[in-house]
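Re: magnesium ion structure - here you go.
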Amino acid sequence: MTETPLLKVRNVNKRYGEGCPKCAAPDMLGEENRCAYCGSVWACRNVIFDLYEGEILGIVGESGSGKSTLVKSLYFDDSITSGTASISSYKEGTADIFSVSPQQKRYIRNYLMGMVYQNPWLGLKMSFSSGGNIAEKLIASGTYHVGTIRERASALLEHVEIPVARMDELPKNFSGGMQQRVQISKALANNPPILLLDEVTTGLDLSVQAKVLDLIRSIQRELRVAMIVVSHDLGVIRMLADRTMVMKSGKVVEQGLTDQILEDPQHEYTQLLVHSLL
Ligand SMILES: Nc1ncnc2c1ncn2[C@@H]1O[C@H](COP(=O)(O)OP(=O)(O)O)[C@@H](O)[C@H]1O
Ligand SMILES: [Mg+2]
Ligand SMILES: [Zn+2]
């Protein structure tokens, strides 16, 4: 770990819905993040964290706690209501990535980030071959030479243990575990310093899940890419994350070293999560 964070996220707030005088600010709602008057939801409330080079940061919390909203915002799939974030390797960390132009956001997405979604249909074009999906990401990040693309796509598929012979097949004909592998290889195609993974093993059979988790760990060791791993499953977090952030109703209620959080959870909600795991 270096001193300067790779990614700095500050005071991120996201409201779904128009809001009303009763929920104009995120802290006007209490434990609940849904406004009882207008039904708007503050999905993220004052989220602050750092991600360091080469580490895996886990984000855990029950369904609806705001985890996906947070990573989707970082990947610009969703806009935030307020807050800032900076990446040390982008404009020397001086720019707020949420307020740059759409072209600059595209650049950040294509060159500095990778995203793996829970639902492979969001991360892959099912009408493109696996190789074609990887090619798309390579082209977006400035690789145009057909030979190079094909070579890199084979290497990436090999890396995630998809037989290269299946490069021209459509991922929609693959099993769930294989689809996640293709998504991971696509997300890594541009060698991003930051990889976002949202519930990538949720819904997979346990044995398949274990293999995908192993793959993620080995990739992280080998490539030293910094990862944000989102899961409602503390088992996944325990296996992957160096540090963990616990979210509840849009707020970060606890963060620290994963081992410490698992051994000695401070927040009542984390204690519940941990005890239901054991
Ligand atoms: N597009 C949307 N429109 C309205 N509300 C949404 C939308 N997406 C998520 N929410 C709400 O925001 C909250 C956080 O959701 P989400 O980020 O998906 O949580 P998690 O990933 O932790 O399960 C939930 O209350 C959810 O219902
Ligand atoms: Mg989610
Ligand atoms: Zn309201």
